[in-house]
From TrEMBL:
This is RCC1-like domain-containing protein. It comes from Hevea brasiliensis (Para rubber tree). The keyword Repeat applies. InterPro entries: RCC1-like_dom, RCC1/BLIP-II, Reg_chr_condens, Ub_ligase/GEF_domain. The keyword Repeat applies. Keywords: Repeat. RCC repeats lie at residues 94-145, 146-199, 200-252, 256-309, 310-361, 362-430, 431-466. The lineage of its organism: Eukaryota, Viridiplantae, Streptophyta, Embryophyta, Tracheophyta. Residues 78-413 form the RCC1-like domain. It comes from the Eukaryota.
């Protein structure tokens, strides 16, 4: 909601707070809208003032910060998460369903038995979940009270060979080390976990003793550490975790910006080099492109951003065509996907060498690795056998199979982890969920027929997320 709309709304009904004669009309209208946001409501007066100063000393900037976070993370809305061989679905009322592989208890049902049918996590009844994250053998859920629940492997980050996390947690357990942090988002990489507080601070767990994230920790450290450096005093609205790096979308008085930190191989940090970054560093290229980032996505080895004007930028490893530039070359700085110049994008999702883009009209485009049929391009499979189903796509192609659902797609989620067969979810405006790709562990949420381990066309998952 823009400021002019907020001001009009303010005058249409009674304000829910005492007048402050030192504030302008626009500032009062912005404060009124802030107080209607779910995350802002429980804050104390002191916490609200701290947030105001952190955002630049203006309620208008606080409102922009809150709205930006809601828009890019689907807070208070339904969502589906395609994890590595298991899946999580959150309804608009905060109920959670899980299905797929359960070898580590990552489904949260108190067992280690595999489930192909979406099953509600009953132990969470009475707790409203607003956000979820899934990693190898691990799940994290965020409640509307800012509490974090975790289950599956008991480590916050996985070593390359998965030797961490010998203890299994099969039901959601409150993360005690975060009890003093009001969390609104979590992101799981292969070597670390990051969480974002409602004030826009980033905390990380388990990135090893080499200090690659600006603090000295052991690999099995379960205490959250604030991410130091350039974003210490800048409010972050979204975080995205790749295999060994982290992106942070920040909201500053001068506009939106993206910072990156971690492993720079392939140029995926976006700074024009392939060197590692110990502390978060601003990606300067967006200023040169005159692009205001509003959504950021971190794939295993490449990254993507959607701009306010609908342009899409990608960078990093270009293997299998996952950058959408018509080749397999790496890009060490963000580059506009020219093949999408006719599309106004509103959402982007990235996986292991795979990218999906959703337009403002609800159309879906995908490109990159075609393994597991997770791109959704199955239109020629009948004529060419199974060959085309797994073809790599070097430039964005419309996922025509999703046009057939006759409904606007609002979110795409795909597996973002190496060494796993990928699957994809498409969530529609009315809360219908469609799945395609690998389903060998039941992660698609549809019954396996005749030993069929994957689905090339989107199939409806029998769960209502509205």
């Amino acid at each position: 909601m823009c400021l002019s709309q907020a001001t009009c709304y303010f005058f249409r009904q009674r304000a829910n707070f005492a007048p402050d004669y030192e504030l302008s009309i626009s500032e009062l209208a912005a404060l009124d809208m802030c107080q209607r946001r779910a995350i802002f409501k429980p804050m104390t007066p002191e916490e609200r003032q701290d947030l105001k100063q952190r955002c630049g000393g203006s309620w208008k900037l606080v409102l922009r910060f809150l709205l930006a976070g809601e828009a890019c993370c689907r807070r208070e809305k339904s969502q589906a998460i395609a994890g590595p061989c298991h899946s999580i679905a959150v309804t608009s009322t905060g109920a959670v369903y899980s299905f797929g592989s359960n070898s580590s208890g990552q489904l949260g049902h108190g067992t280690t038995e595999e489930e192909w049918r979406p099953r509600q996590i009953r132990s969470l009844q009475g707790i409203r979940i607003i956000q979820a994250a899934a990693g190898p053998g691990r799940t994290m859920l965020i409640s509307d009270a800012g509490q974090v629940y975790a289950f599956g492997k008991d480590s916050f980050g996985e070593s390359e060979y998965g030797v961490q996390g010998t203890k299994l947690v099969t039901t959601p357990q409150l993360v005690e080390s975060l009890k003093n942090v009001f969390v609104v988002q979590a992101a799981i990489g292969n070597f670390f976990t990051a969480v974002l507080s409602r004030e826009g601070r980033v905390y990380t767990f388990s990135w090893g003793s080499d200090g690659i994230l600006g603090h000295q920790t052991e690999p099995n450290d379960v205490e959250p550490h604030p991410l130091l450096g350039a974003i210490e005093n800048i409010p972050v609205v979204q975080i995205a975790a790749g295999y060994c790096y982290l992106l942070a979308l920040a909201c500053q008085p001068c506009g939106m910006s993206v910072y990156s930190v971690g492993c720079g191989l392939g140029g995926k940090l976006g700074h024009g080099s392939r060197t590692d970054e110990k502390y978060p560093r601003l990606i300067e290229q967006f200023r040169l492109l005159n692009l205001q980032p509003v959504v950021v996505a971190a794939g295993a080895w490449h990254a993507a951003v959607v701009g306010r004007d609908g342009r899409v930028c990608t960078w990093g490893w270009g293997r299998y065509g996952c950058l959408g530039h018509g080749n397999e070359e790496c890009e060490s700085v963000p580059k506009v996907v020219e093949a999408l110049s006719h599309v106004k994008a509103v959402h982007v999702a990235t996986g292991d060498y795979t990218t999906f883009v959703v337009s403002d009209e609800g159309d879906v485009y995908s490109f990159g690795c075609g393994e597991s049929a997770s791109l959704g391009h199955n239109n020629a499979a009948a004529a060419d056998g199974q060959g085309n189903r797994h073809a790599n796509v070097l430039s964005p192609e419309l996922v025509t199979s999703l046009k057939e659902v006759n409904e606007r797609v609002v979110q795409i989620s795909l597996t973002n982890c190496v060494y796993w067969n990928a699957h994809t979810f498409a969530l529609t405006e009315s809360g219908k969920l469609y799945a395609f790709g690998a389903g060998d562990k039941g992660q698609l949420g549809v019954e396996r027929m005749n030993n069929q381990t994957e689905r090339g066309n989107p199939e409806r998952v029998e769960i209502d997320l509205s």
